From TrEMBL:
PANTHER family: D-GLUCOSIDE 3-DEHYDROGENASE, UDP-N-ACETYL-2-AMINO-2-DEOXY-D-GLUCURONATE OXIDASE. This is Oxidoreductase. GO terms for molecular function: nucleotide binding. Residues 132-259 form the GFO/IDH/MocA-like oxidoreductase domain. Residues 2-116 form the Gfo/Idh/MocA-like oxidoreductase N-terminal domain. It holds the Pfam family GFO_IDH_MocA_C3.
């Protein structure tokens, strides 16, 4: 039995706890949160009060003989807490983003390389049924080579979402806004299909929360993935200033057709087809957001299966390097007015 502790008892910590309660080889033994009452409430809610509650990670690690910790804390805490656990030889499953600066990510690479513990990153949308369907269609080869892609994330986040959190909306603690928080998963999937950009241009704005947040509510980026007059390219747009949380839209234009992912559906059309085929995901999940991201269960289960079998984990730190560094390149370009 693998003994597990969750650090951070907010909404996402609850999602992790629900999944862990369904994994036979995992036992929830402890919760930690700077607000002790929240850790105590989670203990009662998810373990009938059997898990111990702590008001600090340090206290929990000192008193509990854990095998795995889940980092579900604000962005700026991810790397310091993960590094601390890895240095103790614990396995770590960390929420996104993997870091909020290049320096943090480089530190995480060094600590991870030296640790006997394994590190997994929660890029759960790689496990969505729709994502796997797109991967399957591309692998078949009937669409031909990818010529370009586009992604749209149009959601709504109001002032209380930031002001009541104590950390969102601040560059020092969140690391950014609409890109690093809301649309990093869409960027990750786009890059999984297109590869590493050779050039990135971007711009960002704060349209609807001026004077409330210091991060972007809207960001657009243009990326090229090859050289020449007609390069493989991608257009990326993300905003939290829309009136509702719309399903995420991703599309790939290919030599012999196209494939489009939106919500729980995938549209695709190849040469010879008069109309697009519409494929609908069958599995529904109560975890994650209804408009994007139901892969938490599969993502976390896979991590524990890999711990048990010794297999390489799909969402290890190396696998998210391209996404992280591209995200930072986008921010650098946007802060330098597209240069």
């Amino acid at each position: 039995m693998v003994r597990v502790g969750i650090i951070g008892c907010g909404n996402i910590g609850g999602v992790h706890a629900m999944v862990l309660n369904e994994i036979k080889q995992a036992r929830l033994c402890a919760f930690a949160d700077i607000r002790l009452k929240r850790a105590e409430e989670y203990s009662v809610r998810f373990t009938d009060g059997t898990a111990k509650a702590y008001d600090s990670m340090e206290d929990m690690l000192e008193k509990e003989a854990l095998d795995v910790v889940h980092i579900c804390t604000p962005h700026y805490c991810h790397v310091p807490m993960t590094a601390k656990a890895l240095k103790k030889g614990l396995h770590v499953f960390m929420e996104k983003p993997p870091a909020i600066s290049r320096e943090q990510f480089d530190e995480l690479l060094k600590v991870s390389d030296r640790s006997t513990g394994r590190l997994g990153i929660c890029f759960q949308n790689r496990y969505n049924e729709t994502t796997r369907k797109v991967n399957e269609l591309l692998a078949q080869g009937t669409l031909g080579k990818i010529k370009g892609g586009r992604a749209f994330v149009t959601w709504h986040r109001d002032a209380p979402y930031y002001t009541e959190s104590g950390w969102r909306g601040k560059l020092e603690t969140e690391g950014g806004g609409a890109l690093i928080n809301q649309s990093i998963h869409a960027l990750d999937l786009l890059l999984s299909w297109l590869g590493k950009p050779v050039r990135t241009e971007a711009s960002m704005s704060n349209h609807h929360l001026k004077g409330i947040v210091e991060v972007e509510d809207t960001l657009e980026a243009y990326m090229t993935f090859s050289e020449g007059m007609d390069p493989v390219s991608a257009s990326f747009y993300a905003t939290t200033a829309y009136a509702m949380d719309a399903p995420v839209f991703l599309e790939l234009a290919c030599e012999k057709g196209f494939v489009r992912l939106e919500g729980n559906s995938v549209w695709y059309q190849t040469e010879g087809q008069e109309e697009p085929v519409v494929w609908q995901a069958k599995k529904s999940s109560l975890l994650g957001k209804s408009y994007w991201g139901s892969g938490h269960e599969a993502c976390i289960r896979d991590f524990y299966d890999c711990l048990e079998t010794g297999k390489a984990y799909f969402n290890d730190l190396t696998s998210v390097q391209n996404t992280f560094y591209t995200m930072m390149d986008i921010y650098d370009s946007a802060r330098n007015e597209g240069r």
